[in-house]
């Protein structure tokens, strides 16, 4: 195993953590330990925060254009290591290697490089009457990130924070932390001033909580479960820290009665199963017209059964789930669906017979799902699709909105005006119409218990600034 993962990165230097404790990183396809990272302590977190605080004033005074250039150089360094990053993510998350290249690496690095352009587009200050309104950096940011998209979610936080003039302490998920070391190495290579970026690994209840409680942290940016996000918000409220929360989803895919069924169903199944369903925007509830229900569920069953599952190094669509814990959690939801009366069309709790090793779950589809069932209300985070019939357009909207979440959604129709009308009625932060994807610069985030704040583009940058009004007499 690579010894480089034995140290943490604080104040521009690789240092030994306070504890000799280590956390194993397991390849979910082979069930083998591929690395070990430090199990950090509150003392490690404190050192990182103090390094970030010491660097803050000087970094905040650097012109935004110069801060953006650093991000562009970091993107260049990481792009030269794209193959290595994709292989690392595939090994620690289980994402098929081809998908890791395109979705897990190429997109996030392009987004990182784009922040150099945002520096010139953002309104850093403006005059309103006799006031100079300045957008100042919020301060020291704790970035707490998940395991499902380890590079993307880190970049979504550190890029706007650093561009805004903040300094950062990153706590990556202990399940898939390895790309965070590559990011730290890149900041070191381009000469980012010491303390602007700091890395401390460890478990959430130790490092995450220490950061959220720390008096020198000004903002917490978190992506993960709604349960954990609520705990973070409650702790942060004690010292009135700013929080940005990107949390769970239970997104509805409304297929209207005039949609092109073949296109809509194929895309809908893919959207639910991508990354083995381990994605917050998974379209895990497929809402279909009742008068075409039998036809649709047979088509969906066939699509699911044609989905290839296997070794992520091979030419497959789905790899394993990230861990044995996640696999068992998803299996328990499948059991719950059967127990509550949903009809199991395909898949189930039994692992693929040809894959005795690895944390695999077969692509699973339930029919005859009532929206009150657990599998229709709770985020499963696995390749499990619920097909739900609706009576008419109003009923479809009612079902789609009948959830505590509001992160994503989709509407399919041959009439784009009709699809847009339905999309506007959905209480969710992001809606795709037909095959539309989220364009560069669009805000990403959720309504209701899916989160607070937005990521991406100018909207994401806004999260990391404070408004200061300086009144200047004539």
Write up this protein.
The protein is built from 15 helices and 20 strands. It is of the alpha/beta class. It has two domains: 3-247, Aldehyde Dehydrogenase, Chain A, domain 1 (3-Layer(aba) Sandwich), CATH 3.40.605; 252-437, Aldehyde Dehydrogenase, Chain A, domain 2 (3-Layer(aba) Sandwich), CATH 3.40.309. The chain has a seven-stranded mixed beta sheet with strand order 14-15-16-13-12-17-18, sandwiched between helices. The chain has a six-stranded mixed beta sheet with strand order 9-8-7-10-11-19, sandwiched between helices. Strands 5-6-20 form a three-stranded antiparallel beta sheet, with no helix packed on it. The N and C termini lie far apart (66 Å). The mean pLDDT is 96.
Helix and strand layout, with pairings?
Layout: E1 8-10, E2 13-15, E3 22-27, E4 32-38, H1 42-60, H2 64-79, H3 82-93, H4 97-121, E5 125-128, E6 131-137, E7 140-144, H5 150-164, E8 167-171, H6 178-189, E9 197-199, H7 204-213, E10 219-223, H8 226-237, E11 242-246, E12 252-255, H9 261-273, E13 285-289, H10 293-305, H11 324-339, E14 343-346, E15 364-367, H12 374-377, E16 384-390, H13 393-401, E17 409-412, H14 416-425, E18 432-433, E19 451-452, H15 457-462, E20 465-471
